Amino acid sequence: MIVSEADFERCIAELLAAPAMPRDAVLPSDSVMWRVHREAALFLGAGRALLLQLAHPWVAAGIAEQSRVFADPLGRFHRTFSIVYTMVFGTRAQAVAVARRLYRRHAAVDGVMPETVGPFAAGSRYRANDVDALRWVHATLVETAMMSYGLLCPPLGDAEREQYWREAMRFAGLFGIPHEAMPPDWTSFKVYAAEMMASETLTVGTAARDIAQRIFSGEATWIAPPRWFTALTAEMLPERLRLAFALPYGERERRSAARAKRFLPRAYALLPERLRTVGPYQEAMARIEGTTCPPFTRLLNRVWIGQPSMASPFEPRADRARSGTL
Q1: Please, where are the H alpha helices in the chain?
Q2: Number of alpha carbons in the 13 Å side-chain half-sphere of residue 49
């Protein structure tokens, strides 16, 4: 099922149907999703989420053939995080604006498989706005966020995980994923994720393996990730995908991951909140409090999203002023 523009706009209309104040986001500031996604700790799962997405042959083909990921890796990082953080922490107008841009970008990704990978035959068509592909990308973000959060922060309880999933279902509407296409609860979601990871739908082909090698070797990003980060990424992956991506995970990597899991929580707990929480969250809190975005937050935003504010240059001038971008 392909998400048409009319389908996408119906999802957006459902999101906007709930009453909101002018400074409100899609989700309230006391939501579990805000509590989880404000933490810089989630960056620990970036490699895992990327590899799980690449394991879907359509995603790998789209990135390999139609993305500028290797020409501008830092820009790709910033665009991805800008979209996700604006959807979570931006105003409803900002979230919808980036969602519409993402939909148009996905609509342009329409090609044919260069080789047979898993159940997808060479010459068959792939489209980024397919519901199944979108649902998997959304799932990688959700499950990896929860896993990364639990590495450095107290894990969520059962009720909190259910609440997080209900909020994630609303978040999925910004991708154009209809509510009825989503697992109804956290337990069902975990079953879906486990079945996907065991299925041949996730098959690591030549394109996925090449992209992963270039990123984790540093060839594509100019600097290789630390050994402990690669080891932790390998540990967080299902074994069959870890082997398919040829990620090293011998005794040395196991010890490196174990050391990281012992050291990082202690070091993270000592950080001040303005370093533990991401810039877009801090900008959102300033917006809610009716204050100007502080200079340090604007600097953090440049690190996380490549620009001083979540505000889009296409927003009305008054909206940008409230966001502290003028």
Answers
A1: 5-16, 32-37, 46-54, 57-66, 73-89, 92-107, 131-152, 158-172, 186-198, 206-216, 227-236, 239-244, 251-270, 273-276, 279-289, 295-305, 317-322
A2: 20
Longest dimension (CA), the chain: 57
Look at residue 71 in the predicted model and tell me its pLDDT: 60
DSSP per-residue letters across 220-243:
TTSSPPPHHHHHHHHHHS-HHHHH
Residue 212: partners with Cβ closer than 8 Å, 6 or more residues away: 50, 51, 54, 245, 247
pLDDT at 319: 39
Show Cβ contacts of residue 107 under 8 Å, excluding neighbours closer than 6 positions: 5, 128, 129
Q: Count other C-beta atoms under 10 Å from residue 223's C-beta.
A: 7
pLDDT band at 322 (very low <50, low <70, confident <90, very high): very low
> What are the two backbone dihedrals, phi and then psi, of residue 277, each rounded to the nearest 5 degrees?
-100, 145
In the numeric block, which tokens belong to residue 35? 């509590």
pLDDT tens digits for 191-238? 999 999 999 999 999 999 998 998 888 877 777 899 999 999 999 999
Q: Which two tokens stand for residue 306?
A: 């490549």
